[in-house]
Each structure stands twice: as C-alpha cells, then as structure tokens.
Amino acid sequence: MTELELVRRIRAWAPRAGRGVLLGIGDDCAVFRPRGAREDLLFTTDLLIEGVHFLREAHPPQAVGWRTLARGLSDIAAMGGRPRFCLLSLALAAWTDRRWVEGFYRGLLRLAWREGVALVGGDLSHAERVMCDIVLCGAAPKGRWLRRDGARPGDGIYVSGPLGASALGLRTRRGRAWRLHLKPEPRLELGRLLRTRFHATAAIDLSDGLSLDLHRLCLASGVAAELDQVPVFPRATLEDALHGGEDYELLFTLPRNTDAFPRIGTVVKGQPGALRLASQALPPRGYDHFGG
Amino acid sequence: MTELELVRRIRAWAPRAGRGVLLGIGDDCAVFRPRGAREDLLFTTDLLIEGVHFLREAHPPQAVGWRTLARGLSDIAAMGGRPRFCLLSLALAAWTDRRWVEGFYRGLLRLAWREGVALVGGDLSHAERVMCDIVLCGAAPKGRWLRRDGARPGDGIYVSGPLGASALGLRTRRGRAWRLHLKPEPRLELGRLLRTRFHATAAIDLSDGLSLDLHRLCLASGVAAELDQVPVFPRATLEDALHGGEDYELLFTLPRNTDAFPRIGTVVKGQPGALRLASQALPPRGYDHFGG
Predict the structure, then answer these.
(1) Using the beta-carbon criterion (under 8 Å), do A129 and B127 form an inter-chain contact?
(2) Partner-chain contact B121 A52, CB within 8 Å
(3) CATH number of B156-281
(4) Whole-angstrom Cα distance, residue A133 to residue B27?
(5) CATH level 3 topology of B16-141
(6) What is the mean pLDDT of residues A118-144?
(7) Which ipTM score applies to this complex?
(8) What SS3 class is residue A285?
C-alpha cells in the first residue's frame, strides 16, 4: 500500500461533514470556518522523527527545532495564510539530555518569535527515538486561501527558487546547501503574494520532492504537466532537484506569464498526475513513507 | 528534569502573546478566539506510542484507534467543550499490516462518527514503533470554558465515577475493567453539564492518575486538598485508584454540595499542590514520562 493509496482510503472512511469544515484531507492544510468569524482558519500537522527526518549525529538540536516549525509554516505558506499559533507534541528518548532539549526549543522558538507564532500547548512523552509532531494554525481571508486542485490546462508552472539544495546539503554537510538544509525558510510572504497579487490557480509546498509534489498537485487538479527546465541549486544534481525533498520552496500555477519566478513548465490536458520532462515520461519518485 | 519542570521551562521560553490566544500552555486545552467568532475554540494534542501507551500484543488495533481519539475527546470534555474536528499524525512500523491499519481507523472512526467529529487532516510517516498524535478542536461559548486553576478553599472535590478500572484491566486483561481500559468513554456530556449546571470552579481529566492530576489542579489553583475517601472500581486496589492512569473520568471542584457525584474531599488553603488522604501526606505518583 503506498502513501497515496492509504490517504485515499482514509478519505473514503472518514466523516467529513463537520459543521464549519470547508476543506478536509488532501491539501496542505484543512480549512475551518468558525461560526461568525471574519476569517478562515488553516490547520496542518507534520511529523519529525529521528532516523527518518533527522539524524542524531548530523543535525544539531537547534536545527531540529527550527525545521520542525518550518515544516508546519511551509504548509501555511502554501495556502497563502498567516500563521497564528502552534502546538507541539514531543517524545524524548533516553539519549536526549537537558542541553539537547534546550537547543531544540531554542531553535523552534527563535522562528516562532520571528513569525509571531504563539506556542500554546502540546504533549510530552518518551519513546525509543525522538519524535515530534507540530500543529500549526494559520488564518486567511474567507474563501481566499490557495489550494492544490485549481490548476488548469494552459497555466504556467513555477517554483519560488532553485531546487535540490536540501538533498545536496544533507549529502555534503557543508556550505550554503547544508545551511539551507538546517534552516529552511518557509515562504510565508510569497504565499500571501501568490494569493493577493499573482492570482495563483494552485499551490503546494515542496516537502517531498518536485516530481511527487507536482504529481499530487496535478492529480488533485485532474491535469497533467509538461516540464521544460528545472532550476537546479548550484552543484546539486538534476536528481536532487527533481526528487530530493525538503527544499520548502513553493510550487504553483499561474494563469498569466510573469518574469518574477522561474517558469518550469506548463499545465496540460492528459492522464491526471502524469508528468513529462523534455518530452520524456517523469515518474513521481519523491519520498513515500510506504515505499510506493 | 521532571515533566512538570520541563513544562514550566517551556512556558517561560515560549511566546504567548498571539492575537486571539486566551489560554496557552498549562491546561487540558489551549483556547483561541477567532476574530469575530461567536464561540471560543479549544485545542489539545495527545501522543499514543507503542510500548508506552499501548502494547502490540495486548491491544487490538480497534482499541488503539478508539483510545487515541478518546484521549483527545477527554481533554475537550474537561473544558466543557463540544468536539468539532480532529487531525491525526500516524507513524506506522514495519510490523503494521493492512489489517492493523484498517482496524486502527475503524476503532478511531467509530467514535468519531458517534461524536460528530470530522477527520480533516494529519500526516503519515513510518518509524520503528507505531506512534500517533491526535489533535482535537472543540468549541465552547465565549469565555465559558472550564479550567483547572479556579478551585477555591472550601470547594468540594468530586470525581465522575469509580477509579482504577483501567489499571486493573491492564493487569488482568479480562472482564469489565479490561473492556473499560480498551474503550474508555470520554465524559463529554458531563463536561458540558459541569459548566452549564453545576458551575464547577475547576476541572481536569484523569489521564495520568488521581494523585498527579489532582496535584496539577491544586498547583494551578494555588490550593491544597484533603481527600476523605476515593471510590474504587470493584476489585481494583486503592493504589490503582490513586495512581493508575487512563480512567478518563473527570475530576472537578464544586462550590456547593451535591449528591450527583461521589465527593472525595475538600479544597483547603496550604502549600499549593499538597495532597492529604485520611490526614496522611499523599505524594503525587501518577505517570510522569521523565520519571519525576
């Protein structure tokens, strides 16, 4: 069972018809409209697990904390939202000493202070390996959030910057690529501009790699994509740029051309989710937790 | 470092002043008031970890799913709220097959359907052991939610039912105690009645054991407590009732006497958090994840 299959099954089983729930499983965030509220609320959760999303030896605790919050903020960015508050569930392992715990919170809270995100709750536990789950709540004007299912044939496909830095950094563990891997910058400002100024038809954040995330966007929108060129981070490989995850850039589609961002291809009619790069089929190969 | 100490430190470090945040770290739920909304929103997260909160051999997948949601619902109950929606982060292990995953969701969603809780999102991953984090959002009339810090000297201390069933059930793995352990019933209706009809001054849910949770309620309220008697579930020990966790009954304080619930003691002035049972000091000994 692949992750996509499992998500499909969960969607089929789960009750969706909660009062005020405007968008459920399947986008970067769920959307809830509180009774009488002047704005919609966006919700996302992201797991960070030792040995899967970070390595005890390689990642300093400050970086683990920063990346934890950045993951959640990136989902809010992809919907064009403004972050409001977060909750953190954290299971510590036997090896995590006071220095590690303080470093973790220092990294997470530095980004929280900068973005004006209150830490309002969570849960603490212990486990064999460190794991945490970040819950982010953001806000966007009523009905005006971005979603991943609005791409239309003819739209241009854009990314917010060169890709592959995170994969390169994790491999080499030095230079600017490593620093970008350790402290990714969620594209909050850009997400809001995509909504207010560029009238993006669809957006998603690049957490699992371009090929898989573009596949998801196209699948949700019922369209296919032709890629011409992909901006590759200096010294990263095309492989890093296409399939490496955790760049946390935004991928989006625009109805009109712009020079403000690198255009990487065009939305086309076709088998939903099918991707082509330079006229060759490009199978989605980003990170699937269930090996799909 | 004990869990209480760590929570104290996190509270000191974390930004609290988010717009709309009415209650941050330290109660069963955080409280957020969306701009213009007609009700306040309650948020809680709860971890459930294989080997810590459930055993692969002992707990059927349906029970793990049910208990996951029940843990979150119980926090909403303790604030007098009505549940609205949930998100679920789930990391599966190599041993979890399709049958287990389906059973888990069946258990969780049975309770979700019954309580009208939509499952709107989450995250999927893998880990060496199964772990999940449930995020619950509930609602309560503006400013009218219950909290744990309002107990006053002279208030009676009550519980919603006999205690120790869960600890007894886990030990014996049979009979009604085992069934209650596997399918705890969150006290949602009662939580709302405590708010609307009994004017409870403080409430908390009994997830970590009476002695520890009463200690927390008293600490938050700046008071001490004298216990006279504790209703013990048939065949459970006083130890089970005082220190066994996961009964998910509510513990609350009322300004006036009532026969509707078992009265177990009285709020008194004294060292904040200090407990006495039958005139003997009762140290809090419930479940602390950091062995404090």
Answers:
(1) yes
(2) no
(3) 3.90.650.10
(4) 19
(5) 60s Ribosomal Protein L30; Chain: A; (3.30.1330)
(6) 96
(7) 0.94
(8) coil
